[in-house]
Sequence to fold (141 residues):
Amino acid sequence: MDQEELALKWIEAYNAHDFAQQAALMTEDGEVMIPAMNIVQGPAWDQTGQSSARLVDDRTIEVLRMISSGDAVAIEMLWHGTSKGGPGMAPAGERVELQNCIVLTFRDSLISRYVEYIGWCQGIDLHVVRSRILESGRPTG
Fold:
């Protein structure tokens, strides 16, 4: 399986909320970075996804474009979900969206690094939501 196929498999697991499958596609020592939210996590990086899933229902990544080069795949995407409300989020039941680019870096046929660059967002205050995402994680940023 090539890197683009692995990236699509990871997105499929993300959309299915299959955290076990996502983890199986990642290295144990990997890292996640979301510069716009000042999030940098190491080995507990899978917690970021689980924490953000608590903020929205039906979260989905729609791939707009994918480019691979060397050991990396860049994915331009539209992310959307239904807000569960609370600080930094649109009222419960409203759609929230982000147009982002994710860069996945691979090592030994697994994702070793996830960097998410946020383009625009609707219905989310990133600075307020950052603390909610990191509540159960181990922030280092």
